Input
Amino acid sequence: MKKITEAYIQRLPKAEIHIHLEGSVTPEALLRLGKKHKTELAGMNPEQIREEFFEYRDFYDFLETYKLVCRHLQSAEDYLDTLRDLGRYFQRENILYAEVIFTPSIPWKFGRDGAEILGAILEESAKLEESRGVRIRWILDCVRQFGREVAERTAELAWQSRAQGVVGVGLGGDEKAVPLSEYEEVFNWVRAHELFVHVHAGEIGEPSEIWDALQILGANRIGHGIQASRDSKLMGYLRDHAIGLDICLTSNAKTKAWPLISEHPFPLLFERGVPVTLNTDDPGLFEVDLGTEYKKAVDAFELQEDDLHRIILQGIRSSFLPHDEKMSLMQLFRDKIQANGE
Ligand SMILES: [Zn+2]
Output
């Protein structure tokens, strides 16, 4: 049996389809923003920021840091700097396809122009596609605890931005905050307007949250969904309907959603044929990169090269790209995977 090295993983082409722009802010970047905007963080050093804000007692403690980061993203330029860092990350990790999640309701909450910021982001995103050799598509997220009106506005903005690379609308945030039925009409509208539906569910909530995401909102893909491992029928449904789960091992460990990677349900889901992918969720906030995430999975679950290739290709299969584009990208990935093995 061949040992899978970090160098081998690094060279593999990769897709990352669950990554939040706001969550890619590192302790160093947060400090830079703190200094720029002269906030309470300005006098700290990166180690202090790391110790104070980048270790989490639980999911809600993590959300506090998320809010702190969002409070520091005060202008379009701040978002663009974050995106440029992300472009460098994609190139470093050999990520050739990415679906990035952006939440326009965060700038709205601070009285800023979310549509204008999105416009700037999409323009920069197109430039990065050229300079970093990565194809980038966008999911606009409605925060579950922000309510229906914000979700309607987000969906409308996504629809207006389709030609610039927005492919879906998501629902993230605190899955225990508001029942999904509140969003049924909004997501009916989303699907009728040919946008994909992405729902964070079954991360810390019950398997019933995943069922609701599928049956009430018509989710095309589930963020996390790890609690599906407690429901055999649900695993069968996900497999039969080709509904992908975006798995984020380090995120789950750090938010304590699933504290031990060695006991993570990833191998069970994988064996049952549930379409699973590996992602970082928030590479800055969890201080992890996609290569490391793959290495952790290889070591913890004794994955073989073929398993790794299957998971990577699943990232394209589960993506929100049109069929033709999916097929040609899949071929490109297969060729690169094969070349890597020679
Ligand atoms: Zn997420």
In short: Residues 18, 20, 172, 200, 223, 281 surround zinc ion (CB under 6 Å).
